[in-house]
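Notes to self after the Tuesday call (sharing in case useful).
The group wants a holo model before anyone commits to mutagenesis around the pocket. I volunteered. Ligand is manganese (II) ion. Logging inputs and output together so the record is complete.
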Amino acid sequence: MKKISQKEFQNRRKNLFSNMEENSILIVSGEEEKVRNNDVNYEFRQSSDFWYLTGIEEPEALLILIKKDSEKYILFTQEKKVEEEVWTGYKIGVEKAKSFYLADLAYNTNQLDKLSELLFSCEKIYYNLGSSKKLDDLIFTGLDNFKRIKSRTGIPNPLIIDPSILIDSMRLIKTHDEIEVIKNAIDLTEKGFIEAFKYSAPGKYEYEVQQIMEMEFRLGGSKRNGYPSIVASGKNSCILHYIENDQKLTKDTLILIDAGSEWDYYSADITRTWPVSGKFTSEQTDIYELVLEANTKAIEECKVGNSINDPHIKALTILVEGLKHLKILDKSTDEIIEEKLYFPFYMHSTSHWLGLDVHDSGKYKDRDENFTEFQEGMVLTIEPGLYFGDMAQKISKKYKDIGIRIEDDILITKSGPKNLSEKIPKSIKELENFY
Ligand code: GLY
Ligand code: MN
Ligand code: MN
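Result:
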């Protein structure tokens, strides 16, 4: 199955260089190890921006791009020491940083003084202040020194600019290879969902269904999930980020799973809701059909010429009209939307960008509230839902404890929306057929 090649990482850096201003330096830091307890760390995952530009998984690595007269790619990675590698595994080291990861120059992370020299030779520094305590300190110390000699040089401080101004818009438009990799994550997620559909039954526990599903992710080669799986049965389905996953499935309730495997750092993000006993009750059917209509009609809005707000408005209008039809809300559709009276039943948005992060980088609107227009290569979720949990029950006891969300992953193409998760069953008939 496809993974991102070093050639593609190199192209990304080339594009980034072309968007950087002359006489500038860009720093992106890798993630640091985080202590879980005592001497045990959390499982390491590289920061998404760092991965996007390097494909390097090592903690504490640094990427530096300098655009001044020429373009230079510099890497700082951990020092290779056999005495340490015997405990923690092989490090990249300066040689491989150049030969395999294509850096023009490479240093060990204990040579950060090299970075201080480089930093203040440029007029602009692209750096996300706050992203690394070590780098923040280095920059502030450098600024102090710089100020001290200003009376003699007259040179103003370098301008510090958030690099996400350049990187986010690159990450928002996916390349051919990125789309292939995302499809792999979705295909593995599909396999997991199919096993979850088959396994779920009254008496099973949420965590059992989770394990059965995630086993398919792992057997397919996915190292980890894009985010913690939500396996929510009964009224737990009304809690948006329920991750306890420790309750027993009971007869005639629904189970909602929101999960995505990660493949080569890219995440899927899928939700399906289905009946534990194999048959939707008539109350569950009312709500399911409504959410399904919102999902399918919102997907149709994912086309060039529309903005990210269009599928949301479509889904919201369908859900609101449905709630009126079911006699749960009774004002006009415009009033319900204007006054947000739908909020107790539908409190999240319909979409987000999807990629290296499940809630991926990229603007949704500008400072003047203009929503981002769709362009070919964008990938987003469509995930309407209705929840009759505690907030809803203050208004109506009807449909008590039913929570339904249906989430698909959509690619924007010139010829319209491509539902990358369309093979995962979602009609009532398909879901009931698993029993
Ligand atoms: N799983 C998080 C989300 O659907 O946005
Ligand atoms: Mn989502
Ligand atoms: Mn989700």
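Two things stood out.
The longest strand covers residues 70-77.
The pocket of manganese (II) ion (ligand 3) is lined by residues 258, 269, 271, 407 (CB under 6 Å).
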